[in-house]
């Protein structure tokens, strides 16, 4: 009797252990399979946030590479929503894709934590990569402690889009590439008005609602938020000069809709519907297409003060430190990066810039000015705690300025304090 | 054999027990440890003792999120209870078409939280929103709801009250469980509506109120979905859970976030215990005989009787929460 009970107990326990066990096992065998496929190629996964149409286009690129290569076979792992959260958990479980996309602000942290591997040894002497061909800005954000952790596949500088029709109708001189912030301010003021005389301003010179980044002003006035060495410099006079101009545009000239207004309607929407005359947008934004025939869109460089600079949205392809065959993975990364340069604008390389016209015929009218901007486009000097820093800048500096709650000096001082605390300086 | 049968049961539930240990007990104990570490979730956790907990109370953002959440709870819970109770009393009448109103009022509780949040973001828009449009008809220029820091909290409280229909259902069920005879005998004694409400309805509903109070407290402190989507100016919409999430998934400070979770757990536990402890003073159960003596005993509280403590904790749990819920749901099904 006793024996039969024990037997049952043992069977039950065994059954439940097996149940749990199979889940773990299936994972393990998956991993073993993925090392190399039947035809001897190394199986690699590429993590991407591309979804829907973008994913289809990306798949076509990957298919082509797979056909060409004898060494690797790439499989796309599409994570269109909550990309960074999923990458985080995958990396924590040492299951990160062999290659994946990272936006600039994540690179230093992933590098310092050893999640991604440096590429220098695979790039050096590789005929497929010429680092000198890359623009300094997009390449720079991939460098952490002197090592290169990724290759940029996109470099989208912020440009100044304008509603040409509205400018001409109002008799205001069209924006020019050599504009200073004062020129910009003058035009914005002239274009901010109450068109239907109901006592409410319904047409604005520009829209500033947390976008473009505060660096747009800080950098053009010769300042830095955080410099290359990681030192906080947002409270230095040059940076404050820039913040003062922002403050003037928002709170004195009032050439932008309020933050709530802009955020609820959306800055791009306000531009597309002709409520805003000048809009800071990425060079690759398809504003022209969306505007259609409603009005003529123009594009020029972001205004400057002491120097020319513009923030650029940059993303890299990086390589996981857990990938088994780094040499082949790096090879795939390089091929993939080169292939994306024919797909997305702006390519971060000087030689590929000629392709903009071909990739996106709708940008033909602005190719020259985009090329000009690419020269001065750059990313942040990203730190390991970049997300936290961005959050502090918004909280202590940008939002209070937009709401008219702090003077530029006070905002800069508070932000500097918060940033230094986060960085432990 | 009979003895063994007893263990067979355990055997059959062993998958569940294992699951419980693997997916509940282990993560909780692990989280307890993580609370004492500096962990970015990628590399090994580094033990730092109480540092997380010490930093928490020096972190202005943490204190702000705690303040926002407590203030919200302070307003949203009582107002929520009052509004759902009022709604329940109103729809507890026998008129034609009352089902329509009951359904309409309950509807907000059915819609997914995310879509509600998106809807509210539009309703609260200062220029194109519904509320300010209506206000403008009567000559009031409405506030900048989510854009003005001082209006953020009232906006959230308003949203919470809009969802009062969910609570209404439990009160309605409770109301229909109150025996008619109690009102009849009170009427014979000449009681007016207020007397009846105050001395019959409220005491008879107290288990349901108790239930809603506890659930409301837990819900308010764990507020996340709409706050995450809607936000609010100057961090006034940054509730406790939102800041916790930020730390864990944006700042990669998993240890710090876990410490926050434990502090939240302690707060909720303390408050719930407090409510449970005071419940004998104001929660009444049908069938409980109230005498001068029993009242006296209640006022003396739990200090006198160690045993009564146990009883009282069990009491509301078994009778109040589950009992009232089950009974009253049944009641409502049958009656209305």
From TrEMBL, chain A:
It comes from [Anoxybacillus] calidus. Transmembrane segments: none annotated. This is Multiple sugar transport system substrate-binding protein. Residues 1-28 form the signal peptide. It holds the Pfam family SBP_bac_1. The keyword Transport applies. It comes from the Bacteria. Keywords: Cell membrane, Lipoprotein, Membrane, Palmitate, Signal, Sugar transport, Transport. The keyword Membrane applies.
UniProtKB/TrEMBL annotation, chain B:
GO terms for biological process: transmembrane transport. The keyword Signal does not apply. It is found in: Cell membrane. It is a multi-pass membrane protein. PROSITE patterns: ABC_TM1. It comes from the Bacteria. Its main location: membrane. Pfam families: BPD_transp_1. Residues 62-275 form the ABC transmembrane type-1 domain. The chain crosses the membrane at residues 12-36, 70-93, 105-123, 151-173, 202-221, 254-276. Keywords: Cell membrane, Membrane, Sugar transport, Transmembrane, Transmembrane helix, Transport. One of its GO terms (cellular component) is plasma membrane. InterPro entries: ABC_transporter_permease, MetI-like, MetI-like_sf. The keyword Ubl conjugation does not apply. Belongs to the binding-protein-dependent transport system permease family. This is Multiple sugar transport system permease protein. It comes from [Anoxybacillus] calidus.
């Amino acid at each position: 009797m006793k024996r039969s009970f024990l037997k049952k107990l043992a069977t039950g326990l065994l059954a439940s252990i097996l149940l749990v066990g199979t889940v773990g096992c299936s994972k393990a065998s998956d991993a073993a399979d993925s090392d190399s496929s039947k035809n001897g190629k190394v199986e690699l996964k590429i993590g991407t946030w591309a979804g829907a149409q973008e994913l289809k286009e990306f798949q076509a690129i990957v298919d082509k590479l797979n056909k060409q290569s004898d060494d690797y076979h790439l499989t796309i792992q599409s994570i269109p929503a909550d990309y960074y959260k999923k990458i985080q958990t995958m990396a924590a479980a040492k299951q990160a894709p062999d290659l994946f996309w990272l936006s600039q602000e994540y690179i230093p942290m992933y590098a310092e934590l050893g999640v991604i591997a440096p590429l220098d040894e695979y790039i050096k002497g590789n005929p497929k990569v010429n680092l000198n061909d890359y623009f300094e800005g997009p390449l720079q954000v991939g460098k952490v402690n002197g090592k290169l952790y990724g290759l940029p596949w996109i470099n989208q500088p912020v440009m100044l889009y304008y509603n040409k029709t509205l400018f001409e109708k109002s008799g205001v001189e069209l924006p020019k590439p050599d504009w200073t912030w004062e020129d910009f301010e003058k035009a914005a003021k002239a274009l901010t008005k109450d068109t239907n005389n109901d006592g409410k301003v319904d047409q604005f010179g520009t829209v500033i609602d947390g976008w473009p980044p505060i660096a747009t002003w800080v950098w053009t006035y010769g300042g830095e938020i955080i410099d290359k060495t990681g030192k906080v410099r947002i409270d230095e006079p040059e940076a404050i000069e820039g913040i003062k101009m922002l403050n003037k545009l928002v709170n004195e000239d009032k050439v932008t809709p309020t933050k709530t207004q802009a955020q609820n309607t959306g800055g791009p929407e306000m531009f597309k519907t002709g409520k805003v005359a000048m809009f800071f947008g990425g060079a690759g934004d398809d504003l022209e297409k969306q505007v259609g025939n409603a009005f003529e869109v123009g594009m020029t460089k972001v205004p400057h003060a002491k120097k020319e600079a513009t923030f650029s949205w940059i993303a890299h392809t990086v390589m996981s430190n857990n990938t088994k065959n780094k040499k082949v993975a790096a090879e795939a990364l390089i091929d993939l990066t080169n292939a994306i340069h024919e797909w997305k604008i702006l390519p971060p390389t000087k030689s590929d810039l000629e392709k903009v016209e071909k990739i996106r015929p709708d940008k033909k009218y602005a190719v020259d000015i985009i090329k000009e901007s690419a020269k001065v486009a750059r990313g942040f000097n990203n730190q390991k705690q970049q997300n936290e820093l961005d959050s502090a800048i918004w909280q202590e500096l940008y939002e209070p300025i937009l709401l008219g709650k702090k003077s530029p000096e006070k905002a800069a001082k508070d932000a500097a304090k918060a940033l230094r605390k986060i960085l432990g300086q | 054999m009979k003895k063994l049968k007893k263990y067979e049961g355990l055997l059959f539930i062993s998958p569940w027990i294992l699951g419980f240990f693997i997916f509940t007990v282990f993560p909780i104990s692990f989280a307890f440890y993580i609370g004492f570490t500096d962990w970015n979730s990628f590399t090994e956790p580094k033990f730092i003792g109480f540092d997380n907990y010490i930093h928490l109370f020096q972190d202005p953002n943490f204190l702000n999120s705690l303040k926002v959440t407590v203030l919200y709870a302070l307003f949203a819970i009582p107002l929520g209870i009052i509004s759902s109770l009022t709604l329940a009393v109103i729809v507890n009448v026998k008129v034609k078409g009352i089902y329509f109103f009951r359904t309409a009022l309950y509807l907000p509780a059915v819609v997914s939280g995310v879509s509600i949040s998106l809807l509210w973001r539009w309703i609260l828009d200062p220029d194109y929103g519904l509320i300010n449009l209506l206000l403008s008809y009567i000559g009031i220029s409405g506030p900048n709801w989510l854009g003005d820091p001082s209006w953020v909290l009232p906006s959230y409280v308003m949203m919470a009250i809009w969802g009062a229909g969910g609570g209404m259902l439990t009160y309605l069920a409770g109301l229909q469980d109150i025996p008619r005879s109690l009102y009849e005998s009170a009427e014979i004694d000449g009681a007016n509506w207020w007397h009846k409400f105050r001395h019959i309805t409220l005491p008879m509903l107290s288990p349901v109120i108790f239930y809603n109070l506890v659930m409301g407290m837990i819900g308010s402190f764990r507020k996340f979905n709409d706050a995450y989507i809607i936000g609010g100016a100057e961090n006034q919409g940054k509730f406790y859970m939102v800041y916790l999430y930020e730390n864990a998934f944006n700042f990669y400070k998993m240890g710090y976030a876990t410490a926050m979770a434990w502090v939240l757990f302690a707060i909720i536990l303390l408050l719930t215990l407090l409510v449970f402890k005071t419940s004998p003073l104001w929660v009444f159960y049908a069938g409980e005989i109230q005498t001068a003596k029993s009242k006296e005993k209640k006022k003396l509280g739990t200090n006198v009787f160690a045993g009564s403590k146990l009883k009282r904790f069990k009491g509301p749990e078994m009778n109040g929460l589950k009992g009232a819920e089950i009974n009253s749901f049944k009641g409502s099904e049958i009656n209305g």
